[in-house]
Amino acid sequence: MNIFHITKLAQDYASTAITKGDKVIDATAGNGADTVFLAEKVGQTGQVYAFDIQEDAIKNTKAKVLEKAYESRVQLIQDSHANIDQYVQGPISCVMFNLGYLPKGDPAIITKGASSIKALKKSLELLKVNGIITICVYTSHEGGVEEASIVEAYLKVLDKYRYKVLKYSCLNDQTSPYIVLIARMK
Ligand code: SAM
């Protein structure tokens, strides 16, 4: 396990909640790394719902999905993750968020606190018991600190008997990206 590579760490945590045949969500498809990872994990009988607002992200993710011949297990949805409930019915075993902007894309198009919270709220409703939500959080781009504080403020007050919310961050470097994990207990 590489403890500094947060996207890989998020995948390692996500793995613990996923079994073949599950329905899962990639809330920020981007260039498709998490979508392909999730497709691998759910297998032929599972389903991945991958959201992104950008056409380029959907195109890049589609290319990766086709390369692996995973098209029957992945639905690509060009819409905001705030509308997850219009496309997905529960129960869902895992939702992955990778906040910020599309790597090698337009750095002005970023995830935002208000829509991230809507998506998180809906994801929590769809999540099954023992399901996991992973969130990779970045604060070094413009708007990143604001989004992080909005998301954290929302998660801090979740019912502690129903959900456990963990933060994995670098104590001696506040600018480092970090992970937030949400596990549904009951
Ligand atoms: N997980 C991706 C990967 O493996 O390449 C990287 C995701 S990237 C850091 C963040 C993505 O979130 C961008 O592609 C951006 O277009 C997308 N995004 C921004 N706002 C969004 C929204 N409201 N709903 C869904 N996706 C959004």
Automatic annotation (TrEMBL):
InterPro entries in alphabetical order: MnmM_MeTrfase, SAM-dependent_MTases_sf
A GO BP annotation: methylation
Record's keyword terms, sorted: Methyltransferase, Transferase
Source domain of life: Bacteria
GO MF, one annotated term: methyltransferase activity
Name of the protein described by the UniProt record: Putative rRNA methylase
